[in-house]
Amino acid sequence: MKLWLVRHAQPLVAAGICYGRLDMAADAEATAQCARSLAAQLPPRLRVASSPLQRCEQLAQALQGLRPDLIYKTDARLQEMDFGHWEGRAWQAIAETELQAWSRDFADYPVGAVGESVSRFMARVAAAFDALQAPGEHGQDTLWITHAGVIRAVDLLTSGLRHIERADQWPPHAPKYGQWHTRDL
């Protein structure tokens, strides 16, 4: 079984802003270009699950316009990590003491005071990942239209890591906006 992991196009947000669950549109032309590229490469009748955040929904809708043969649904588990009170703030405006607190307790610190911890985020993504291999689902290729954090979490899951303790264990790379990679499960 193959899992396609697609990152949404460039969001319409200023550089240096913390956003995860912050819902904003993506660049329309970049979204259309990504949809065209994907549509040309995807196999028929592929299952597509999308984060409900509009930057991902835009891509799912554009792809559906080009490939109505694909099977579409929205899955809230594919949303980006919730950064709590940090959402919409410039990263450099977040107190160094808050960032250090997160780094010291990377697994369990509720980011932005009320957001998700990395452990909760990983568990949410793992639930969606595990459902791919549930009876009746096994063996069917799937595409996720999602976010960099979710893709990094899947990269950890496919390497056998379900829980990480330290920030240096978090994968540093994800596909660029509007790009993708695949994982064989």
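That was protein one. Protein two is written in the same sequence-then-structure order:
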Amino acid sequence: MRRLLALAACLCFASPALAGQAVTLKADTADADGVVTLGDLFDGAGAAGHTPVAARSGASVVLNAQAVQLVARRAGLDWANAEGLKTIVVHGGPAAAAAAAGPQRGNVDVLTYARNLTAGDVVQPTDLVWGKVAAAPSDAPSDPDAIIGLAAKRPLRAGAAVSMRDVAAAQVIKAGETVTVMYQAEGISLSLQGKALGAAGVGETLNVQNTASKRIIQAVVTGPGQAIVGPAAEGLKSARSTRYALR
């Protein structure tokens, strides 16, 4: 699946895309034979509907929305993705949809891990599939976006139900590292150097000791060796909180 989408993406960048037939994403994206096509994904795909997008080997497959958009564009279709989707979950047809609509007692549909993950591994779209368990964790995410891009806190077993307790933001700053802290607001831009007093990932709050004054401040991590304070920091924390809210 990765090779197919990567090839399609390369082809799209190789030649300018022309305006194509406008299509909309189906409310229920499903395929019946294990080969996901543009017709499985979009209403109004027409003749381009037979174009393959990915292979589904499990009960479901999680596709990268941007890669799908590029495949569609290459086939002459224009999907605007007005909702700003990052991933598209495709399940295995009417039978799976019926099971999701009315699961039997003790047979709950949840996101599960498609492979074994070691501590520190970052969860990718292809690492998640829908599966059935006797009981779902209390913090089981219903949206793959809530878990994709986070790092495993401990070894995770293939087939296990996904729990938000399993993961955390991938650490980009370690304790003791030098951090540049920025403040930007209303045309004012200031920076200082400090020492990280802990480890943190992007979007997490970190205690930083000002190298000059020895004062400890709280900053929000934006990348390796980088953090911010002030209004921009509050905006980043709010965006992170919204991202992990279950839809």
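The chain has three domains: 2-95, 103-169, 171-243. Keep this in mind for the problem set.
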